[in-house]
Amino acid sequence: AEAKGSVFGEGAGIIVLENKEHAKKRGAKIYAEIAGTGQSSNINSDYKRLEPDGKGIAAAVEMAMTEANIKPQQLDLIIPHGTGIPEDDLAESKGLEAVLGKAIATIPAWPTKSMLSNTSAAGGALDVIAAAFAISQGKIPAAKNLNKKAAGCNLNIVMEPIQKDINNVLCCSYTHGGQTAAVVLKKTDLMS
């Protein structure tokens, strides 16, 4: 509720994607599996902001959830883009709620930028890496720098670390100017 904007940072992340059978054959450590992806765009006349209803995020999330063939209640974690820009965070929350419905209030949400800063183009990769580690470690860290959620934000933001079995994680990402993306990662039976 008291956010004043994003803190920009520098960062990079590398994710190796490969066929499950190839990874298994070479004995690779498998952190997670991509179950579904979605992409869209928001068309807002003020390109510096998301659409107030988060339609672009909603479209990407709906595609990813459909491809992953899971229901909202099967999500164990949401990693929102969460920039700390109040209007955008509220729009993203509304877009997520449009797809996830009432389940949004019970699924833990971990906005990583509260610790990593907004690394712009690297942010999506860093979030996917965080999701893969959450799955492999069975742990969701607490969000930082949050005293009070903004009115209308119904995300269940993690305030204390949670140790739990994590099977499905939804990551959301967007850029100012229109692009939105979502990916669902799942625990794989090939984890080593």
- Biggest sheet layout: 4 strands, mixed
Count of alpha and pi helical runs:
5
Please state the CA-atom Rg, rounded to the nearest Å.
16 Å
The succession of helices and strands, N to C, reads HEHEHEHHEEEEE
Spatial sequence of strands, sheet with the most strands: 1-8-7-2
Unreliable parts: none
Task: Compute the average pLDDT.
Answer: 90
What share of residues are in beta strands?
15-25%
> Separation of termini?
41 Å
Q: Percentage of helical residues? A: 25-40%
Number of strands: 8
Coarse structural class: alpha/beta
Shape: globular
Written description of the protein model:
This protein is globular. It contains 5 helices and 8 strands. The relative contact order is 0.26. The chain has 192 residues and is of the alpha/beta class. The strands form 3 sheets. The chain has a 4-stranded mixed beta sheet. Strands 3-5 form a two-stranded parallel sheet.
Briefly, what is this?
The chain is of the alpha/beta class and 192 residues long.
Write the layout of secondary structure elements.
Elements: H1 20-25, E1 33-41, H2 55-68, E2 77-79, H3 86-100, E3 108-109, H4 113-116, H5 123-137, E4 139-140, E5 156-157, E6 162-163, E7 168-174, E8 179-186
Parallel strand pairs: 2-7, 3-5
Antiparallel strand pairs: 1-8, 4-6, 7-8
Helix pairs in contact: 2-3
Observed structural traits:
5 helices; two-stranded parallel ribbon; four-stranded mixed β-sheet; globular; single chain; 8 strands; alpha/beta; 192 residues
